[in-house]
């Protein structure tokens, strides 16, 4: 992969990052929201690794809504929401021994330490993350991870799990314990036997069984399921548990929590890798599923200094186990059309079981992947293409197996022909165009394509966007095809009640699936979303490359719809508006171009204007600490910093409410310049920007 990445052009890298963002977002939703994963852990990890590798080589192309900055996915319907006082983040993944030595070296380099650092090592449980909040020793709330910031309230269900104490002694007044809900192999087998005997659904694997059991709306069902819990971390605290990770886990055990007995203390990479090998060798005898080993910096003071990236802590990493393999026959290749028009091929397989999981479909990425070509036209699978009727090798690392790794040419049927990728959209008949450098072929029909229109509507009503209660994917499909109350664009949603009023006997309350009460509830839920924060509106528009993180960045920068709309309307290349847009830290030329293209497209703009005419868009204020001297200021770092790394300086500035930009402009307030400042110092002088050195910066923020 390294050689391939080195050959990528900037245009190819931009297209590949866009493709990867779509695939990772879909995988996150399937895994975290629906509890029905569609790709394997191995494939998901490979996608994220490729995304990060391209971002590392082309840092200017990183999307504001990059998958590198994401945790989990939006919540499913049915549970109340719980905002986590301390975010529940995912972990960076490692796959090779060299990744672990690199991790240890990065930790020391970030901290400026030459001596070794101690780490804890523990099995990575394959279950569902859960946070338990105790106040004065009493369990008051339990929540799933959700998207990392907001989870689902599953308190009553958690109370039924025997491993979760209801009362604690010797605990801080506020204690948020985090861990993993799981199901043992023996309990899983017994549960499936009972399910089958009753003619009810059997589960694919223990992780799905645990997740489905915890997220039951009826706590009585959860109580009947054999769930277990390992505690391994904490969130909000009123007082520290201990000075080290190892001692804090020991204290949780003393309070009555189950902690993993295989957790050990390691003095460096050699001991970490040795413990990994021991656990991997004994994996089949543990009695529960694990998919790797987690290493954490033991000293909690060092953890605090290391801090967090946008989606992962710098002080921890998950060392994943290798994938498992299986062979099956590919029966068909279907083409699905997504929200952005991407034609995505899906392999339909003869169901096969690998590691206890039954898999019947897999993603095929794009036409080049099917043909046995990489991004630069280089051969993959030694040039072997994929054909209907082939015996294909798929692999598993975790829940399911969607990755086709190879093809057995000796078992290829005589009738098998090379797959001809459609150049016409199968949904609307429009030309499916593939731009130079783009790995994906896209339908050019835009909103006239029913598949794109429906998927964009589904996105519009999704959790991170307008989140209209009672209007989910199923209802969107129904209204889209409804002859009497059609909903073809987002604006149509907000005229639904008025149109229904004029429909006489064909009104919604008179139809199957609806009554007068449910129809009123739906219209009330729609009405409640006429007032919407700017960030949710921007995300809800469904513009390519603009995810939740990007929408939040844009909303905080422009604050109001009027300012945002005016800026994007006039932000053509070489204009001041364009320069301002791409100066926002986290907004690159790809995202900016996508925004501008949407606002310049006649039909897209008409749909946006019609929608906004129905809404009251609420401003989004920049987040800023009250007493910070840099709150609300735009700061640029350049040159070599000697007392902290650039990453640590940026993280500290953002924590104090500053905006960190990548380039100097007239809107920059402060340039922090170390040795070798270069052109940015000249730009600061040109724009009259205040320039200070690292010592001045530390004095300004009170860290001198």
Describe the structure.
With 704 residues, the protein is of the alpha+beta class. The chain folds into 5 domains: 2-70 and 323-411, Nucleic acid-binding proteins (OB fold (Dihydrolipoamide Acetyltransferase, E2P), Beta Barrel), CATH 2.40.50; 81-320, DNA ligase/mRNA capping enzyme (D-amino Acid Aminotransferase, Chain A, domain 1), CATH 3.30.470; 468-528, no CATH class; 533-618, DNA polymerase, domain 1 (Orthogonal Bundle); 634-700, 3-Layer(aba) Sandwich (Rossmann fold), CATH 3.40.50.10190. 37% of the residues lie in helices and 19% in strands. The chain contains 26 helices and 24 strands. Strands 2-11-10-3-9 form a 5-stranded mixed sheet. A 5-stranded antiparallel sheet has the order 14-13-12-15-16, covered by helices on one side. Strand 23, helix 25 (679-687) and strand 24 form a beta-alpha-beta unit. Helix 2 (10-33) runs antiparallel to helix 3 and helix 18 crosses helix 19. The two termini are 44 Å apart.
């Amino acid at each position: 992969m390294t050689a391939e990445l080195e050959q990528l052009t900037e245009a190819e890298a931009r297209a590949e990052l866009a493709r990867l963002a779509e695939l990772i977002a879909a995988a996150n939703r399937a895994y975290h929201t629906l509890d029905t994963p569609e790709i394997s852990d191995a494939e998901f990890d490979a996608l994220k690794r490729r995304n990060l590798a391209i971002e590392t080589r082309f840092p200017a192309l990183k999307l504001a809504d990059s998958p590198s900055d994401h945790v989990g996915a939006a919540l499913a319907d049915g549970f109340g929401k719980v905002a986590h006082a301390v975010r529940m983040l995912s972990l960076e993944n490692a796959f090779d021994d060299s990744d672990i030595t690199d991790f240890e070296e990065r930790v020391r380099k970030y901290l400026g330490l030459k001596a070794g650092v101690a780490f804890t090592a523990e099995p990575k449980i394959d279950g569902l993350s859960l946070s338990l909040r105790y106040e004065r020793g009493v369990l008051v709330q339990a929540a799933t991870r959700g998207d990392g910031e907001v989870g689902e309230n599953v308190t009553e269900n958690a109370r039924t799990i025997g491993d979760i104490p209801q009362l604690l002694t010797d605990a801080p007044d506020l204690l948020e314990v985090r861990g993993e809900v799981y199901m043992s192999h023996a309990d899983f087998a017994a549960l499936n036997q009972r399910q089958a005997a009753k003619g009810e659904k059997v589960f694919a694997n223990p992780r799905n069984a645990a997740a489905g059991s915890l997220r039951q709306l009826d706590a009585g069902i959860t109580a009947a399921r054999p769930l277990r819990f390992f505690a391994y971390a904490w969130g909000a605290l009123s007082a520290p548990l201990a000075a080290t990770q190892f001692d804090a886990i020991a204290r949780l055990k003393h309070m009555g929590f189950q902690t993993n007995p295989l957790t050990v203390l390691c003095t460096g990479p050699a001991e970490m890798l040795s413990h990994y090998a021991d656990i991997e060798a004994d994996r089949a005898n543990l009695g529960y599923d694990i998919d790797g080993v987690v290493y954490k910096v033991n000293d909690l003071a060092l953890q605090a200094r290391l801090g967090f990236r946008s989606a992962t802590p710098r002080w921890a990493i998950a060392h994943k186990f290798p994938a498992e393999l299986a062979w099956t026959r590919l029966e068909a290749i279907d083409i699905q059309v997504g929200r952005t028009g991407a034609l995505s091929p899906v392999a339909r397989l003869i169901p096969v079981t690998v590691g206890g999981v039954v898999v019947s479909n897999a993603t095929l990425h794009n036409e080049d992947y099917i043909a046995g070509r990489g991004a630069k036209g280089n051969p993959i699978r030694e040039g072997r293409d994929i054909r209907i009727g082939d015996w294909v090798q798929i692999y598993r690392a975790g829940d399911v197996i969607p990755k086709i790794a190879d093809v057995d040419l000796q078992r290829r049927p005589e009738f098998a022909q090379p797959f001809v990728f459609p150049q016409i959209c199968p949904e609307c008949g429009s030309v499916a165009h593939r731009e130079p450098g783009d790995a994906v072929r896209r339908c050019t029909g835009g909103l006239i394509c029913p598949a794109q229109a429906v998927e964009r509507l589904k996105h519009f009503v999704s959790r991170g966007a307008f989140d209209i209660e009672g209007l989910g994917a199923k209802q969107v499909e129904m209204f889209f095809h409804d002859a009497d109350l059609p909903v073809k664009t987002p604006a149509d949603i907000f005229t639904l009640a008025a149109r229904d009023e004029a429909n006489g006997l064909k009104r919604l309350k008179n139809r199957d699936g609806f009554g007068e009460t449910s129809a009123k509830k739906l219209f009330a839920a729609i009405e409640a979303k006429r007032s919407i924060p700017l960030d949710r509106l921007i995300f809800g528009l469904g513009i390519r490359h603009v995810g939740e993180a990007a929408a939040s960045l844009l909303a905080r920068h422009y604050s109001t719809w009027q300012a945002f709309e005016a800026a994007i309307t006039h932000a053509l290349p070489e204009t001041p508006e364009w320069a301002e847009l791409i100066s926002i830290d986290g907004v690159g030329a790809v995202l900016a171009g996508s925004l501008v293209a949407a606002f310049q497209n006649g039909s897209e703009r008409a749909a946006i204007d019609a929608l906004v005419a129905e809404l009251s868009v609420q401003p989004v204020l920049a987040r800023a600490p009250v007493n910070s001297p840099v709150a609300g200021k735009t700061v640029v770092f350049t040159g070599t910093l000697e007392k902290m790394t650039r990453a640590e300086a940026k993280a500290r500035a953002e924590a104090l409410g500053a905006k960190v930009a990548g380039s100097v402009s007239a809107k920059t307030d402060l340039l922090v310049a170390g040795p070798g400042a270069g052109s940015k110092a000249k730009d600061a002088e040109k724009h009259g920007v205040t320039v200070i050195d690292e010592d001045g910066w530390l004095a300004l923020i009170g860290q001198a």
